[in-house]
Amino acid sequence: MSLIRDNPVAMYLQIADRLRREVAEGTFEPSGRLPSESQIMERFNVSRVTVRLALDQLDKDGLIERRKGKGTFVAGKQVRHQIDTLRSFHESLKVQGFDATMRIVELTAIETPSAFVSLFGAKCALLERLHLVDDEPIAMGRSFLPAVMSELDLETVEQRPTYALLRDKAGADIASADIAIGARAVPSRISSLIGAATDAVLLVLERTSYFDHGACAEWSEFFIRPERYKFVLGSRMSA
To answer: Model pTM?
Structure first.
């Protein structure tokens, strides 16, 4: 795409305006990643200095953010979670094209909290994981699971979504889930782990999932940075 080179508006501002318009139009969805400097240079046939001036302008305007070793992204790119589709939290990130990873905080066998004994018995597994997008924490999940899940090796747990782990270990599919969404202040340990302010109010998703034979598969709560996350629910007009 060519620029008007005799335009009194500097070329870097023309490039910035083009990219700004494309950000507004959603051109860089779903990942929010902009083309590399080299790709922008080739597209507009300009020098790297000109490209960097254009990106500097967008950065000053708060439209983009640069992440070391990762590239340039639309600022505040939100994750969309389609809650009327049954997916694990990690899968909901991956299907949107995000570079989503998990990091284990804790996996251990514990005495089941009294409120959940009827679901899991006297012992259960506690799993806590950070969910990251482009190496940036956006949420922490805390799950109570059948006790046998505490026997899983850490490498597997760091790579596999919860529903896949449950299916592999229990030999049964997840058939349904009850979900509740709210907002509340959380302990400083959690806000620190996901990079939120100590007194921040976070989105909290609570989920109880069930196997196809009816038994409870997991109870989880996810503490989510609200500026990076959006829940979406589809609906249809009744006939």
So the answer is: 0.71
